[in-house]
Amino acid sequence: MNEAITSAATAFKEADYENSVRQHLALIDEHGMNEPEIKFNLALSYQNNGQDEDAKKTYEELSNNTIGEISSFASNQQGVMLGNEKKYKEALALFKKALLNDPGNEKARYNYELLSRWLDGNEENQENEEDQEQEDKPEPSNYAKRMKAQADDLVNRFEFEEAMKTMESALEIDETVASYQKFMDHLKDINEINQ
Questions:
Q1: Are 69 and 108 spatial neighbours (Cβ–Cβ below 8 Å)?
Q2: Would you give the distance in Å from CA 3 to the centre of its chain?
Q3: The whole model's pTM is what?
Q4: Is 138 helix (H, G, I), strand (E, B) or coil?
Q5: Which of 9, 12, 87, 122 could form a disulfide with 82 if both were Cys (CB 3.0 to 4.6 A apart)?
Q6: How many Cα atoms within 13 Å fall on the side-chain side of residue 84?
Q7: How many helices (H) and strands (E) would you count in the chain?
Q8: What 3-state class would DSSP assign to 117?
Q9: Taking CA 91 as the corner, what is the angle to CA 121 and CA 117, rounded to the nearest 5 degrees?
Q10: Using alpha carbons only, what angle is made at residue 189 by residues 183 and 191, rounded to the nearest 5 degrees?
Q11: Any residues with CB less than 8 A from the CB of 63 and at least 6 apart, and which?
Q12: For the chain, what is the mean pLDDT?
C-alpha cells in the first residue's frame, strides 16, 4: 500500500495527471483509502487533467462532508473553477465558505478579497460607463477598446497585474484609454492588495 501511495504522489508531482487520477482511484477503490486528503488529491488530479465535472463533484463532496482544512481547500478550488467559468457571485460564496471552514486559509482569503473588490469595481464601472459617455471625455478608440477587452480577459483569469500593465502600456500611446480610468483604478487597488 505504501508503494501505491508513493506512486500516486509521484504521478501528481511530475504533472502526469492522467496517471495520478488512475493511481488515486486505485488507492480508493482497491485499497479502501477514503481519507479526505486522498480524495482532495484525486480532485486536483481531475482538475489538472481537464476532467472538470469529476473535479467539481469531488470538491463538492469534500466541502459538504468534511470539516476544517480539507473542506476549506475544496471550497476554494470550487470557487476558482466557478471563477474561470465567469460565475463570479457563486465563486465568491464558495471563497467565503472556505474561510468559514478555515479562517487561516490565506489563498481563500486572497481570492475572496480580490474577487469581492473586482465585483464591486465592475458594477461601479458599468454604472459609470453611462456617466462617462455623457461627459466630454473622448470616445475610446478601437485600439483602446481592444486593449480593454484584453485586460478583461486577463481579469477573468485572475491575472490582475498583467491586466494593469496592459492598460498602462496602452495609455502611453493612446490617450483615449483614459476613458477606462475607473477600471484602471480598481485594478490598481487589487494589485495593492497583492503586495
A1: no
A2: 34
A3: 0.59
A4: coil
A5: 87
A6: 10
A7: 10, 0
A8: helix
A9: 20
A10: 105
A11: 71, 74, 75, 78, 94, 97, 98, 101
A12: 82
